[in-house]
Amino acid sequence: MPAIPTAPAHARPLLVARRHRLPVSSSPLLTGRAGLLARPRAALMSAQARPPVEPPAHPTYDLKAVIALALAEDAGDRGDVSCLATIPSDVEAEATFIAKADGVIAGISLADMIFNQVDPSLKVEWFESDGNYVHKGLQFGKVYGCARSIIVAERVVLNFMQRMSGIATLTKAMSDAARPACILETRKTAPGLRLVDKWAVLIGGGKNHRLGLFDMVMIKDNHISVAGGIANAMRSVDGFLEKEKLTLPVEVETRTIEEVKDVLKYAAENRTSLTRIMLDNMVVPLSNGDVDVSMLKDAVQLINGRFETEASGNVTIDTVKKIGETGVTYISSGALTHSVKALDISLKIDTELALQVGRRTNRA
After folding, report:
1. Which long-range contacts (CB under 8 A, 24 or more apart) does 198-201 make?
2. Would you call 310 helix, strand, or coil by DSSP?
3. Residue 49 — pLDDT band, cuts 50, 70, 90?
4. pLDDT surpassing 70 at residue 20
5. Rounded CA gap, 219 and 216, in Å?
6. pTM of the full predicted structure?
7. How do beta strands 123-126 and 103-104 pair?
8. Taking Cα atoms as reference points, which of 347, 361, 344, 353 lies closest to residue 139?
9. What values do phi and psi take at 15, rounded to 5?
10. Helix 294-303 crosses helix 257-269 at what angle (to 10 degrees)?
11. How far is CA 99 from CA 5, 57, 102, 247, 348, in A?
């Protein structure tokens, strides 16, 4: 039988039939005990330096079901016909994660869950951990095993990781600028991805606002309007919690200094479960692009530490530092999740060619 032409060893990705899999000792890409991919020492230390960030605890959210839904919408009723047509079932491959932009990586723990759900035999190795900052062109992880399984999981893994990394990157930037105030997201998350989006905020260094309608009483403008005023709304909340024997954090939204005074007056005259006052839209945008935070600062001083405070409205990466300097406890931003720019990440079997193309397009 004539020899089959092959690519040069330095350019050829790991792609072998399972029945002819290379022994660990003879493969230049696999070294060490149990065939684990060798890590550069610095990468190993980086990955070990940051403990895993656990997802928020939710009483009804089923993360495995969310993953299954994402895989099912991709597979439809036939599965991956491209893989079925082009890749024999016994072929194994190795694919590399490549960052194509600078940012905070997030979704590594979720990616492990997805790969395991697609094919438990896949082996995944990470050189970075959730929350680490990565640079364009960095190879930060590998997955190897059944080629079909890797490609089936690829897009779902990347969709989650890119979105989560985009959220974590913006959260990190805002958190750094806002100190000593803490950054929160809101409920303005992608439908069905509430826990995933809020997980990414934690990875980026922010804190979670309420997960849903069940874990905090939040008296907003519409509740106040229907109840006939702030005092009436707060009185109803205090009565409800006492009657139901519930202990929950309570926040009330205020939009003016007068409403802040109304809240403080009620709290001074009544036993209340109130824990936080939201100061909504007290950051006023100016025509020169700056913001006036004097109303917000006045409100914070008026409250004088009696309750937690939360600034909301007109929060951007450009305004958050000035808002944080007012002494507010928290700053909430819907933009963290509703206007996220995904971080560009790829998963490639032919890494060298992918990097060549990336450099050509300034994405590696």
Report:
1. 198/55, 198/56, 198/337, 199/53, 199/55, 199/56, 199/106, 199/110, 199/164, 200/106, 200/107, 200/163, 200/164, 200/165, 200/167, 200/168, 200/171, 200/337, 201/167, 201/168, 201/171, 201/336, 201/337
2. strand
3. low
4. no
5. 10
6. 0.86
7. unpaired
8. 347
9. -150, 100
10. 10
11. 32, 29, 7, 44, 11
Average pLDDT over residues 46-67: 87
Residues whose CB is less than 8 angstroms from the CB of residue 237 and which lie 6 or more positions away in sequence, other chains included: 217, 219, 250, 273
pLDDT greater than 90 at residue 46: no
Has residue 291 got a pLDDT over 90?
A: yes
Structure tokens at 298: 């006045």
- Tell me if 192 sits within 8 A of 160, measured CB to CB: no
Provide the residue count of the chain.
Answer: 364
Q: What tokens appear for 337 in the block? A: 């999740």
Are residues 267 and 238 in contact, defined by beta-carbon separation less than 8 angstroms? no
**SS3 state of residue 155:** helix
Q: Which residues are catalytic?
A: 155, 188, 220, 253, 280
